[in-house]
Fold:
Amino acid sequence: MTIPRIIRMHENDNVAIVVNAGGLPEGTVFPDGLTLTTRVPEGHKVALVDIAQGERIVRYDVTIGFALQPIARGTWIEESLVGMPAARGLDDLPRPVRDRAPLAPLEGYTFEGFRNPDGSVGTRNILAISETVQCVSGVVAFAVDRIKKELLPNYPHVDDVIAIEHTYGCGVAIDAPGAEIPIRTLRNIAKNPNFGGRVMLVSLGCEKLQPARLFPQGSIPIQTQTMDAVCLQDAAHVGFGDMIESIMRTAEQHLAQLNLRRRETVPASELVVGVQCGGSDAFSGVTANPAVGYASDLLVRAGAAVMFSETTEVRDGIDQLTARAADDDVAQAMVREMAWYDDYLKRGGVDRSANTTPGNKKGGLANITEKAMGSIIKSGTAPIAGVLAPGEKLQQKGLIYAATPASDFICGTLQLAAGMNMHVFTTGRGTPYGLAAVPVVKVATRDDLARRWHDLMDINAGRIATGDATIADVGWELFHFLLDVASGRKKTWAEHWKLHNALTLFNPAPVT
Ligand code: CA
Structure:
């Protein structure tokens, strides 16, 4: 017989979640005498005390909702019983906490990475071919296929050749407010540390996003821009074959340069780790995200940069976050990004509650407030050292709030632009997400998912729920795994199977 298990996140909570696979039947008696008056599905909440109508429902020591009717002790708190709290206003938020004891430095950890001329460090050695506009994508894809078959085998120190394909570049209101976001995202992706510091570009010729607008003078460290850019409408190209020849000739020069790069031992502080979650369930905030938070603290203590994101999933915790800001400027920058996003959603006629998915709810998350509390835990406990607007490039170490939508593909794309060289992705419902440009480490929230998706999930945080591992155990496991994958000693499952999602730009401006 299985032992019934529940997890309460904080001593002030009046709910806990059922851990047992498949849930627990009505009549289940727990060691402390709590008896289930209804069936409770796996990952869903049970009332630990009688909760009166209108009373607060508390998880993570935070009000995640209000009881819409009386809820007896031992009852399944279905989504329909929970009223959603209003969003916290952005005025009169807590000031940053002063005189916080700094986290103890963590020294002596290294990985083998590719040092770039600008000082950044890559975890992979990839030729990335930038594109100004979607029109060229078919041609570039054709060329990349041939480059991989005919040229790449001659350059054994280069890991891969990829196209930075996207749907932007023309048919857009390129001077509208917000258009700077997709443009700087493309510019900064080209400068990702995994691409070796030089840019190769293919343009069409007549598009709105001209090469000089994508890469203005001085924006990239290229020696001679003409050598690195191929324009398909160039009069010298006679026929498709000429275009492909031009791209392959330019690519070969880049491959020869990249092939000179060698891994060298660098401190763990050179890691730039983007964390996010997708396909979340009630275990995300109990197992995987706390373990990622633990690893995030280890990384920050080692001097690395860690980015957490997903604005609609942290919006409900803004009062925690301003208190954790390193100073008033950082707190104000957080509020600026939340206000911008509130306004963006409002223009679309929705609010933050548009975030949750059917899968989230089936997995036990009643609303965005509950989801947000489980999401923020990924950021660990370090002070927030800085804030990035969407598409900006990271220039500092420590814990950073990189403002992005929660959409997995858009968040990953923007973290790529910020300069991440490792990506950590937690999932409860399960997603095979991957990126071509950086290794994506996937962390499962539940034993069952880790078992069924044994060749897709890299780390099993479900052992925390079953009592077979602690949050610290899994946090350290993830930390060491990141160093191994960054060094090229290990591959993630997404790399092994070459599972790559499309880059997806965040374009808040109109199209024409
Ligand atoms: Ca996400």
Notes: The two ends are 63 Å apart (CA to CA).
